[in-house]
């Protein structure tokens, strides 16, 4: 069948490549160094059953008839296992070291757990809004963290028991534009019209960022006060890197 190849260019100029089969399932991913990872989907469900890394090491994945993951085995032979109730909710997870985590539910109509318990009996509890947003989390020591959300479901504040809070602000496109703590320290984020993150301004005013051209390629990056420029050929490959000191590669 027809295969589709998608190339992705990153801010540093590196290129990764993904190959999909005729029905859109990911089959291979090749990193900037040319190393390829292979993905083997089930022919019926399309679920990934095997991932093989560039060095030939494989991980295997197994599912129930509801397409839920029941076990996964890594290249080292270690396995995780999952069990579900009749409603399809995760009720138990066994880690590679044998530790078991159990999940409790207090609402028969919700897939969101109200509590988890580990092998030692330590219990963590959660409360949720009717829209599925996490409202509070109580750890095994009894410390409570509370979360606020806006009408769009975006998290706007995190309140910890010690009186430490973090506040988040978003623009009209739902992009995170500022994070502020209780002491007033603020980190700001800027974007271009395409929605690419172009700058992160730290509380001390230092600025890290990336400028893009009209095709979405990174043409200038600033990190820790150092600036680097990139030039591309017609095929979109980086042909010239210029550092702040004028050196070329």
Describe the structure.
The structure is a single chain. Among the domains are: 1-58, no CATH class; 195-249. The model has no long low-confidence stretch (mean pLDDT 89). It has strands at residues 4-9, 15-20, 26-30, 36-41, 48-52, 58-63, 69-73, 79-84, 90-94, 100-104, 115-117, 123-128, 134-138, 144-149, 155-160, 165-170, 176-181, 186-191, 197-201, 207-212, 218-223, 226-232, 238-243. Helices cover 0% and strands 52% of the residues. It is mainly beta and 249 residues long. It is built from no helices and 23 strands. It has a 23-stranded antiparallel sheet, with no helix packed on it.
Task: List strands and helices in order, with pairings.
Layout: E1 4-9, E2 15-20, E3 26-30, E4 36-41, E5 48-52, E6 58-63, E7 69-73, E8 79-84, E9 90-94, E10 100-104, E11 115-117, E12 123-128, E13 134-138, E14 144-149, E15 155-160, E16 165-170, E17 176-181, E18 186-191, E19 197-201, E20 207-212, E21 218-223, E22 226-232, E23 238-243
Antiparallel strand pairs: 1-2, 2-3, 3-4, 4-5, 5-6, 6-7, 7-8, 8-9, 9-10, 10-11, 11-12, 12-13, 13-14, 14-15, 15-16, 16-17, 17-18, 18-19, 19-20, 20-21, 21-22, 22-23
InterPro entries: RHS_repeat (IPR031325), T6SS_VgrG/RHS (IPR050708), YD (IPR006530)
Protein name: RHS repeat protein
Organism: Escherichia coli
